[in-house]
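Researcher: Please translate sequence to structure tokens.
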Amino acid sequence: MLSRLVSATLLGIDAKAVEVEVDIGLGMKNYVTVGLPDAAVKEGRERVKSAVLNSGFFFPSNAPVTVNLAPADLRKEGTTLDLPIALGILAASGQVRFEAGPKQLLAGELSLDGTVKPVPGVLSMALLAREGGFRQMLVPSANAAEAALVRGLEVIPVASLSEACAHLAGRAIIAPVSHTPLEEGEVLLPLDFREVRGQAMAKRALEVAAAGGHHVLMVGPPGTGKSLLAARMPTILPPMTLEEAIEATRVHSCAGLLPAGEPILRLRPFRSPHHTISYAGMTGGGQNIQPGEISLAHQGVLFLDELTEFRRDVLEALRQPLEDGRVTITRAAQSLTFPCAFLLLSAMNPCPCGFLGHPSKPCRCTPNQIKQYQGRISGPLLDRVDLTVEVPALSFDEMDAPEAEEGSAAIRDRVLAARERQARRFSRSRVRVNGRMGPSQIQKHCALGPEARTLLKTAADRFSLSGRGLHRVLKTARTIADLEGAEAITPSHVAEALQFRFSRYFES
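Model: Translation complete:
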């Protein structure tokens, strides 16, 4: 009985190496796959058989074929294992003798005609290959640029099963693709803050949020520009570093959401799920666990419009991810941890009819209705929001003002300057922005003078600030100081941070 081992990988952010072992013997006519395969892996039998035959080889139909996927206690999902299984069968049946070479990792889905089709999660596989000591990786041609983002790994693009066999046998060596660097240059967006009339306070809040990575809640009547402002948030965010881009790309790659022809995300993600989204859709999950919206927004923005219309359990699920920057999904068969360091941007009406506080339209809601409506947002969730800003209704003269509004470019310059100060401050830390500072860093970098401390103490006593709320005020004040280029946090910085902390709608 012949045996050959070929290494492959499972789809997933926390990918694990899987050994594919093929045994071909004599006797019964069967093909068995063992090692907790799902339906897609089991159906691979027909794809592999047809691809082998259409590539000019024979399939050992008169002998039992046993495909063992190890480790046996890890569920195998998807079509990623088609290529290594086919190569294992060809090697075990003696049709192809592979030359001894560097440690290789193989991944790819097979079409019936023997072509190799792209698979999701290749960037995670490439990172796993490098960490596991693999020197070479065979991937579908369409995934080659994505895998080539990882330095120190030879990426071999294969278009068909016969090409992979020729390369591994040493008959037709395929040249590895060159490393794909993150493209330089600004990506221009068609939106601009110049298009939004008025709303200076809301624009200032978004500037502070972009500079320090703070969470924002906009409250105001319908039609005042909350969604308009949110859509322009990406225009003032700093570009991603290579490390951030790879982190965000891994999530989208594993979810199969990378745009065609784009091996890496160049813009920070901006996710805006509908308020009917399920718990699993927000946090991640499903029968085959997939990342949710909070993970797809990793290194970017999660915008929740009509915040009070989201299900209570969906909103409460955000509490821990907002603090930790990661979410763990546990099922009976497996447990996966997804990154979700995002900036939460949310918007809501002040009451059910939407016109509470409107200068000309009367509110038709009773005090009890207003209390119940605002109570849909729990205190613990509000406590994790750094900036609460009112977006009021504008008069005709304000909307028709001839003065030119400040554009996104000018705001973005200030944001970039503030981020550079934070980069120097946190050069020896994993923290990148003020909004992610821990208690020890707050104590070190947010020291207050006597006047600023007195102001903060007075506000904390009057409004019963929680420990978390106090820390968030300090972090916001640090960002406001960074926007001004100030080393010390002054009373004016604390006052502005407190102004954003409290509103006439929420006093927490």
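Researcher: Any highlights?
Model: Residues 35 and 69 are 5 Å apart (CA to CA).
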